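Hey, can you fold this?
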Amino acid sequence: MTSEQPGAVPDHPGPDEEPPLLRLRGVSKHFGPVRALTGVDLDIPAGKVTALAGDNGAGKSVLIKCISGIHAPDSGQMWWEGAPVHVRTPSEAAALGIQTVYQDLALCDNLDIVQNMFLGRERLRRTGLDEVSMENAARETLTSLAVTTVRSVRQRVASLSGGQRQSVAIAKAVLWNSKLVIMDEPTAALGVAQTTMVLDLVRRLADRGHAVMIVSHNLNDVFQVADRIAVLHLGRMVDVRPTADSDRQIVVDLMTTGESTRVVREPGRPV
């Protein structure tokens, strides 16, 4: 992939470059007369955190639902690991290695952590459920992600804090051999300490080689954890750039007007 310039999405990688894990080109989605997405281009590389920013109604939720198989795009093309794909259902997305953690987390309060992580995918043996195998796998996954605040994997989800619940939902996604983890507002309604815990977990996922895509209105979180920022405005991708080449005011301009003439101020240089 060629180096990114502000506002540009690389078209094709060079002959010696690896393709991004996920590539979108010209993705559009209409709901009757409403154009939710128009010609969206975006690359999601492995080992990086890509933040998706945009005002309410910009198309963020529709885009992640197109990627995760809930909505079928009306036009455009997706490539996964360099090969063209058509993701028609969430199960097809999961088979590729795409897992989405939505804002409601989809956890069952009356079940414990192990039961939630294996819900619908329970491991069986001749006499019933293989509880030991599932418990060990859940514990190993949480340990590998350095989730240390959970007292026991047999703890009921209803007793967990917001940050712990988010950590369990992320671990559940990682457990199923995910390559791309999409998170919708992962720090919404969390306190400062819990937000820090979740953002540290997001960073560890990318450092382990996962591609991570987060949707967030909190620009402080975005600039703390993201390697790249993609901005949607009225269904169009108006900018994709490294976080170091942007600042909060530029992102706000792009979110609200679709363009920005500001430049990033160099450290120590007066405004």
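Oh, and this one too while you're at it.
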Amino acid sequence: MSTVVRENVDALNAKITVTLKSEDINPKLDTALKKIKKEASLKGFRKGKTPLSFVKKMYGQGAMSDVVNKLLQEELNNYLKEEKIQFLGQPIPSDDQEQLDLNVNEIKDLEFKFDLGLTPEFEVKGLDHLFTHYAVALDEKAVDKEMDTMRKQLGDRKEVDKNIEEGDFFKVDAEEVKEDGSTGWATTISLLVQSMTPEAQKLFLGKDKGDEVSFDVSQLEKGKDEQYLRKYILNVTEADEETVIGNNFKGKIVEILRVFPGEFTEDNIKKAFGENSEIKDEAGVREYISGEMSKWSNKQSDSILMRQIHDKLIESNEIEFPKEFLQRWLKQGAEDPSQVDNSDEAYEGFIKGLKWRLIGNKLADKHEVKVEEEDILEAAKANLRQMFGGGGGLDDAMMTQYAKQMMEQEEFFNRSYASAFNDKILHVLKEQVSTEKKEVDKEELDQIMESFRKADEVAAIAESSEEE
């Protein structure tokens, strides 16, 4: 009978030796070969009538490898599960693992050696700290601004003749001016004021239809490369790819379009919030926006509290990890091991994520926190509402359907799971920690959130590598 033996190297490392007995391998190999014989269709033999010796000669090596791998994984996984061993990553082959000869004609006992990184033992510290819970009063001016933005979204674009201003879209009949004063490439350029560089805005703001302007075409829009310039601003086609075009242009403004704000009519409200929306008038729109802004501010405040708790727990809990094992595991699990950054800085970033995962799991176990499918779905819907800047015109049923589709993408699902998990952990921890309330305005809260966002670029809170 196959055996699994564990040897503890130290508190953080263990060796696992799995011995597969020939009497366990033989019957499974025979079954695999008979299945191949039954399904094989080889030239010179009727289907299912190929001699077993021939099947063994042709397919034995591959079948042997499949049987051994499957049996090995079963023995190893069952042992880890039955013994309830808490480990990091996955077992990886030991450096002293001997090369094995999988001889189908002389099956012997096979011994496999693995290194295992053990989950460190620790008690969570740091929850006795006094944390700041920020409170934000509703900013009526911010609500007014959001109302104005929505009116513009519901508005109509109409042609005007005078005074280009913020938010306008306009067209310029332009032509290249060469060094000798002659003209070259000619085209109609379409521009949106808010996409233009500050320098270009100074040239065009306040101008009227019919006015002429000289400008550097390469400096019209922010952050655009030469390829974008030629294709989308100068309208260069494939037939003219070889044409050399300079940057100096002059042009005449031929059209100015401006968005005139719409009103919160019944039709516009349905357009903005969906056919089944309970919002019926402008007062309802304002109430909805105020409520959403309050929810968002409260969510940001809770996120900041959660981040404070996260950072304090990371700082307060000195946890030792099996560094050498984890670095080997990260390399072996990568598609291209040569691309794995095993520098101390990269490793420390990974360890911060891993440490938080262990702390979070320990707290979840202690307080019986469970993330249900419905929790993940609600978090996914919340993520989508944030992406859409509200509801995007989707009612709850449509949002639910879209969220389920998005959750089929692994990255989006993991992000939604992390949000749901953190929300549940926060709900528990808010009752466990001491907080002091501090009132701030929305701008201050946004600045605090931005500081955390920048910090997250260095070390992510929820590192997904451990799950993989």
